[in-house]
Amino acid sequence: MSKAHHRILNYFKADVLADRVALITGGGSGIGFEISQQFGVHGVKGVVIMGRRQQFLEDAAKMLTTAGVTTAIWQGDVRKPEDCRRAVKTAIDSFGALDILVNCAAGNFLAVSEQLSPNAFKTVMDIDTMGCFNMMHSAFEPLKNSRFGGVIISITATLHYTATWWQTAPVAAKAAIDTMTRNLALEWGEYGIRCNTIAPGPVEDTPGLQKLSGGNTTMPFPTVPTRRASTKAEIASSAIYLCLNEAITGHSLVVDGGEWFGKQAYMPREMVAEISKKVEKSSRDMGPGASKL
């Protein structure tokens, strides 16, 4: 399957999100921008993208508009509840509703834990975990009133499924988001609001991969069973799926090519095949009544 194919995956009809309104934090770049674009391609009435840099948002909005996506922007910081409330108000004022919230804003960097300052740790927790809560809390009322049923999708990671070198702050932040999401799915289900997360592994052509790979975005992925990074289109298509399947809530959808459980083989495939042949031959030679280990 070609690399180009993975970048343009499209499983859904063009109008599956018709008349819905989405608000996407971190929507001006990377995964957030791709989700904004794919939501627009699949029929949303309007998309609000939120971020901290005005010019960045304006440039992103121009690209989305050119692609046929009706877009509004709000410059704000998810760490500030008042900014989150204003972003939600922008969606209501611009498009009359809010049906989908995607929490994509995040802070991350590599750090040796003994050199990680408390302030740096707090910054990641504030952007990732508090930012998600601030947005979900601010969006509750309009999501509760959505005629489609409100949807919250938070982009997390698989870092905390085991443990991850040099990632103490984001491991803590993403674990908190996953558990918070399950709890809100429990509490808000009666209001028709579904809460899920998407956990990507390495995703090509993103600022995150650039940052965490030290700039080596062409690095191999020997511990990923699919032997490649995921694409932004694959993450975006997963977000569309979670918007549509009304039976899924409190779930973390892992989209990482198996990266979280992947590990390098400790001996080559050919060597294992040879050992297996010898064991099989020895077993036959021993006969059916012989004791086998």
Can you offer a commentary on this structure?
This protein is of the alpha/beta class and 293 residues long. The chain has one domain: Rossmann fold, CATH 3.40.50.720. Helix content is 44%, strand content 12%. It has 9 helices and 7 strands; from the N terminus they run H-E-H-E-H-E-H-E-H-E-H-E-H-H-E-H. Strands 3-2-1-4-5-6-7 form a 7-stranded parallel beta sheet, sandwiched between helices. Helix 3 (54-66) links the parallel strand 2 and strand 3. It is globular. It starts with a helix and ends in a 7-residue tail after the last helix. The mean pLDDT is 89.
Give a short synopsis of this structure.
This protein is 44% helix and 12% strand.
Secondary structure elements and pairings:
Elements: H1 3-7, E1 21-25, H2 30-41, E2 46-51, H3 54-66, E3 71-75, H4 81-95, E4 100-103, H5 118-144, E5 151-155, H6 168-188, E6 194-200, H7 207-212, H8 232-244, E7 252-255, H9 269-286
Parallel strand pairs: 1-2, 1-4, 2-3, 4-5, 5-6, 6-7
Helix pairs in contact: 2-8, 4-5, 5-6
Overall geometric form? globular
Distance between the termini: 42 Å
Beta-strand share of residues = 5-15%
What is the CATH homology-level superfamily?
A: NAD(P)-binding Rossmann-like Domain
**What is the CATH class?**
Alpha Beta
Low-pLDDT regions: none
> Structural class of the secondary structure composition?
alpha/beta
Number of strands: 7
Helix-strand pattern, N to C? HEHEHEHEHEHEHHEH
Radius of gyration: 22 Å
Total helical segments: 9
What number of domains? 1
Task: Spell out the key features of this protein.
9 helices, Rossmann fold, globular, 7 strands, single chain, alpha/beta, 293 residues
